[in-house]
Amino acid sequence: MLIVAVIGLLANLFSVLLLRRDAGESLNIKSSYLHLLSDTLSSVSVIIGALLIRYFEIYWVDPVITLLISVYIFFEAVHVVIKTVDILMQSAPAIDYQRLESDLKTIPGVKDVHHIHVWQYSETKIVFDAHIDFEDQLLSEVEKIYPQIAKILKEGYGITHVTIQAEAKMDDRKKLIFLNKDESC
Length: 185
Hints:
There is one protein chain. This protein has about 180 residues and is an alpha+beta fold. It is about 55% helix and about 15% strand. The protein contains 6 helices and 3 strands, in the order ααααββααβ. It has helices at about 1-20, 25-55, 60-90, 95-105, 140-145, 145-155, and strands at about 110-120, 125-135, 160-170. It has a 3-stranded mixed sheet with strand order 1-2-3, with helices on one face. The longest helix has 30 residues, at about 25-55.
């Protein structure tokens, strides 16, 4: 038991060290890392258990160590599952939308930001779309503002894909107007 556990420990420890650096970048790598980490901890517990059983006849140590490792891995796995569900459901990431709106309004030419939609499409891709009221100007001038918007969203919020509906002088048209067929415009 001890010899097999030492061989398993060396193999798993080598793999864990290889994956450790990139475990924060990808859920797939993190899942593999956690699996190998649990195998490594299991090998350590088998080695400790084997030594304690052999030399001190403490037989209860094996299930206790196994339980502790299981609890640790469970809590790490819950985080992976929650993040995976968030991505699958294309949930909105935790962003301070009031600050985001304020940051965008600091750009010269941007008057208002509304109908903001943000969702996480994958581990590395956050999508943003919004209606932005610009000062009344040529479209070619508005196009020059888009890179500034994209830069603020990328650097401040990790947003990687931006879609903007440009508007001008839309203040009075934001309300829903309903006319009966008998009324004239």
